[in-house]
Amino acid sequence: MRRVAKLWKGELSLAEAFWLWGVVGILAISFGGQFLITRLILAGFVSGLLFFSYVLIAIGIGYLVLVSVGIWRSAAQYTGLRLWSWASRGMVIAVVLLNAYALTIVAMHSREDTSDPGKTGCNIEDYLKPTVEQPFVGLWKNSCSDNFGLAIDAQKDGLYSISFCGPGGCFKPGTYRRNTRLAGDPDYKIVDQNTIEVRGLDGFSRYTRCSKPLVVASSEAQSNATSHTDAPQPSAPVKVCR
User: Fold this and answer.
1) Do residues 27 and 131 both lie within one domain?
2) What b/e string do you get for 44-70 counting C-beta neighbours within 10 Å, with b at 16 or more?
3) 62: Cβ contacts below 8 Å, ≥ 6 apart
4) Which structural domain range is residue 83 located in?
5) How far apart, in whole angstroms, are the C-alpha atoms of residue 184 and residue 129?
6) With 50 as the cut, is the pLDDT of residue 234 above it?
7) pTM flag (> 0.70)
8) Cβ-count burial 5-15 (b if 16+ within 10 Å, e if not)
9) How far apart are the C-alpha atoms of 90 and 98, rounded to whole Å?
10) What H or E segment, with its residue span, contains residue 191?
11) Cα 229 versus chain centre, distance
């Protein structure tokens, strides 16, 4: 805590304040937050994801304020080449403005919970009905033994929604990844009818549709595409995830 107090007062060297607390510290919080969110998603805590995101954002803002003030004050007391003092303050201004812009974007897209009520990785296949027009509807997994995966569902105008589903719930269509036609999209590779590859932060990952759902008649296609997101589905026994 003593070092934190010195940082706030600008008593640390500019090099330590900028490189250690600024660059390394902000990167650690950023990647740590992304890792935690990813683990929460994989663990199935979809319904509580919005709350945890707000907590992480609050922590990030607090740390950014601490570091920005510390670097600004250390730059004021720097006795070396003034260029480094001006450059450090310029970086502080740029980072603060960039984060303010990012928070504005986040606020615009986080006004409602992204959880899809009543649907989980255990029962989502009851809602997924592929059609002749949209044959890739289904639950796709990295491994068939997983209790989580990507729910690909039919949407209007021939689009598909890509939603993560785990034991704790599913994302609403369109909130996890943007809707897509799959074919021709550079973020997706269709290997065959039951194998696709999806581009993520670490490159492409392969997903398999482990259970082969029955394709419904084409006369039902338009009804399904318009009812998945708006109309309630027939109630079914709740399955317990293991």
Assistant:
1) no
2) bbbbebeeebeebbeebeeebeebbbb
3) none
4) 2-108
5) 22
6) no
7) no
8) ebbeebebebe
9) 12
10) strand 188-192
11) 20
- Quick check: is 199 in a domain? yes
Q: Looking at the structure, do residues 72 and 57 belong to the same domain, yes or no? A: yes
Q: Are residues 85 and 186 in the same domain?
A: no
Judge whether 61 and 33 are in contact, CB under 8 Å. Answer: no
AA letter at 240: V
- 108, 140, 169: which is the final residue of a domain? 108
Q: What confidence category does residue 232 fall into, taking pLDDT thresholds of 50, 70 and 90?
A: very low
pLDDT, tens digit, 9 for 90 and up, residues 104-116: 776 665 555 677 8
Q: Are 175 and 161 in contact (CB under 8 A)?
A: no
User: Residue 67 has which token pair?
Assistant: 């570091």
Residue 27 belongs to a domain: yes
Q: Do 123 and 76 fall within a single domain?
A: no
Same-domain status, 65 and 123: no
- Give domain status of residue 235, yes or no: no
Q: Is 199 helix (H, G, I), strand (E, B) or coil?
A: strand
Indicate the number of domains in the chain: 2
* DSSP secondary structure, 157-189, as one string: GG-EEEEEEETTEEEPTTTSEEEE-STT-TTEE
Residues paired with 216 in a beta bridge = 131
Give residues with Cβ within 8 angstroms of 80, minimum separation 6: 14
Domain assignment present for 76: yes
Per-residue DSSP letters for 73-116? HHHHT--S-HHHHHHHHHHHHHHHHHHHHHHHHHHHT-SS--EE
